[in-house]
Amino acid sequence: xxxxxxxxxxxxxxxxxxxxxxxxxxxxxxxxxxxxxxxxxxxxxxxxxxxxxxxxxxxxxxxxxxxxxxxxxxxxxxxxxxxxxxxxxxxxxxxxxxxxxxxxxxxxxxxxxxxxxxxxxxxxxxxxxxxxxxxxxxxxxxxxxxxxxxxxxxxxxxxxxxxxxxxxxxxxxxxxxxxxxxxxxxxxxxxxxxxxxxxxxxxxxxxxxxxxxxxxxxxxxxxxxxxxxxxxxxxxxxxxxxxxxxxxxxxxxxxxxxxxxxxxxxxxxxxxxxxxxxxxxxxxxxxxxxxxxxxxxxxxxxxxxxxxxxxxxxxxxxxxxxxxxxxxxxxxxxxxxxxxxxxxxxxxxxxxxxxxxxxxxxxxxxxxxxxxxxxxxxxxxxxxxxxxxxxxxxxxxxxxxxxxxxxxxxxxxxxxxxxxxxxxxxxxxxxxxxxxxxxxxxxxxxxxxxxxxxxxxxxxxxxxxxxxxxxxxxxxxxxxxxxxxxxxxxxxxxxxxxx
Length: 499
What we know:
eleven-stranded mixed beta sheet
């Protein structure tokens, strides 16, 4: 159940299900039952206000209202719009409701112990105004627990954007599959815990929809994850190379190299300028260090195809020298991870980078944060029609020909073919210096073990977040690699059970 469905894709799912013989009102009854069950789990009193809109989201609310009344709750429906304007299944669900209904106003929430937000669904695509906006503010000001139907009203289901104002839910009940807006910020912050209810839609309809967005987790990339074999050896697990910066900026490369080893690469080497060789060598144990200066020497080093993954950028410096070594790496047979300075060095000539990325047989992953992304993909950042992080990263992947990973609390990874993953497991204390260097190294470690680029980047993001969660508050970048073994033990146990 890791697939994510946009509102338009969910509409297709509903249509195909109904065409397959399931009545729309049956789906609505199942959805309303799930909402009523969620209300029943809230120990907050027996007075329920259902704020219902004029569409199918309101219809789910009418069903929940009827069922809660049958279970002994004191329920009233606060309707935005006129009852006679209801259509289809929503009108049928309203006709089955025989309890009190009043025109929605902020005052109609007075005295409610629990609020059901059935105002707007995931398909909202314009700012909320008028009575709807007033009701959302009143819901948030009520102080009562809020159960949101499908998505908190005011959140765009495709982008996670808050459309002017949005409900702050205590819990959200959605149906069949989550939407991107449940994971993307700021929408995710409005949802509370999200329950995915089975309402009778067969998973087989996904074969027709072919969703391309996924919640990041082992269900997405587990089948391609490199689990060490009893008869394996270090040379079979690949050799990751990390290019170091100069004498004053070697720490980033060391963090990345250790990340590559912890991610499972059999060997890791820091390709170090001679001026920084002694510092890198003195601070490294399991990581090897070799003298490599400039593009020509890096080309010669990567000509040994055993060096099958390379990280460039962490602490590398911005400028012509970095551009040259990046282009040298992209001319090799190694998989390439470009981070930090390797990206910023092409801010004024992105077309040169994209041309070098085009048609590479080996994987390539770009790992920008927001500032680096904006500098490298100016053409997208200036486009007002690019409305969401998910869309932005997908377009960047298509434009560059590489897998693009845009970091953040809702890290998105996208491949040129349109596949994308959204992570929701990064704790706030992961925002610390050097964490991105470790992530770049982890991606290279997985690439060295021949994991495909999209899956490797997605897996590294998830593992990175889990390691931070396992360590907890006080985390610094060095702690991430030390927390990884416990995360790996749990992951391998899960993969073994899945197999």
